[in-house]
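Reading a protein record of the kind used here takes little practice once its layout is understood. The fold follows as a row of integers, each naming the local backbone shape at the matching residue. With these conventions in mind, the following record can be read line by line:

_____
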Amino acid sequence: MTVYGIDEAEVLEKLREQVKIGATLGLWPDSAAVIINGDDLNNKGAVEKKAAKLFNVKLDELGEKVDFEQVEEGVTFHVGVAARYSKAPVAGELLGTLHLHT
């Protein structure tokens, strides 16, 4: 999934709500959430590792409580795909992405 926002709090809140919806459908996060500043994307949709922020997703058993913990390293899936094939963020906008799986 990919969401957009002006600041980190807005992006994390949008991801939180999408994770809750996914949990009701049997989808669970299997990677870290990634937040990329649109200003850091190059013309090929790639992003420097140092420019992205990673967050482990903590989800309770019922999928009702979602928390994020910033980490230096984590497992990510399809971040390049999300950055390349999603709508490009406008200047100053953040792109947040997270992979959900059954």
User: Anything to note?
Assistant: The mean pLDDT is 83. The two ends are 14 Å apart (CA to CA). The first strand starts at residue 2 and ends at 5.
